[in-house]
Amino acid sequence: MSESLIIIGCGGHGREIYGVVQAINELSEKPRKVLGFLDDSPNEVNLGRLKRLGVPFLGDVGQLECMGGDKRYVIGIGDPRVRASVAARIGDKQLAAAPLVHPAATVGLGNEFSNGTVLLAGARVTTNVKIGAHVHINQNATVGHDNIIEDFVQVNPLAAISGDCSIGRESLIGTGAAILQGLSVGERATVGAGACVVRSVAAGQVVKGVPAH
Ligand SMILES: CC(C)(COP(=O)(O)OP(=O)(O)OC[C@H]1O[C@@H](n2cnc3c(N)ncnc32)[C@H](O)[C@@H]1OP(=O)(O)O)[C@@H](O)C(=O)NCCC(=O)NCCS
Fold first, then answer.
1. Quick check: 92 and 65 in contact, CB under 8 A?
2. 89 CA to middle of ligand 1, Å?
3. Considering Cα of 54, then 120, then 167, then 148, what sign does the dihedral take?
4. What is the pLDDT of residues 97-119, one digit of tens each?
5. Residues 146-201: pLDDT tens digits?
6. What is the reported pTM?
7. Which of 9, 52, 124, 179 gives 20 to 30 Å between its CA and that of 36?
8. Does residue 147 contact residue 163 with C-beta atoms inside 8 Å?
9. Which of 208, 210, 213 to mutate to test ligand 1, by most ligand atoms within 8 A of the CB atom?
């Protein structure tokens, strides 16, 4: 039986993830059925965009509880901390969707992915990378060998994480940032767009610039 999927968050990131599911479905013998979107505070503009996509809006996140235990969900929210708090409300990690990997992403050998992980088009993960739950690797971002990417991390488009790095849970790696090899980024840290990280970043720190401070 094919999986029924709910997307949480009807903003841009959630609707991009809908596109990932459609791209996977085009090549799949068991296409996933997206039942619709949930969002606690959707705005009219985004509701109009959902309508144009032809996907129903189903209500607030609390509705997930009434939908039966066989439904899977993916949290299409770009902010890693908000994503983590929504996941904590939902509670049951088993219901998070199996990893969603866009067919135009490239994935090497020996990687470990978790439920709720999403790789968008052009994302590249090389080898022996461990990726936690609800991690999103956005378009054309690269994750080098032997990385550990903890739960809820958001890697934005075109970011490049070199080999042997570790990225702590709920961290955000901004668009086009580069992280040099062997460094760690602590949990809930933010690396600004375009930054070049040359030293490890402590938990909760915000760094930006080249080199990043
Ligand atoms: C670094 C970042 C977290 C800072 O956020 P912030 O604290 O709200 O920053 P502000 O907008 O208040 O700007 C504060 C200062 O930092 C500068 N600044 C902001 N972002 C910067 C960046 N990425 N690199 C260098 N300088 C930056 C601003 O120009 C401003 O400088 P000023 O004080 O001299 O005027 C944020 O700008 C960023 O880069 N986030 C990543 C966003 C991203 O990846 N978006 C893509 C979504 S797909």
1. no
2. 30
3. positive
4. 889 999 999 999 999 999 999 99
5. 999 999 999 999 999 999 999 999 999 999 999 999 999 999 999 999 999 999 99
6. 0.97
7. 124
8. yes
9. 208
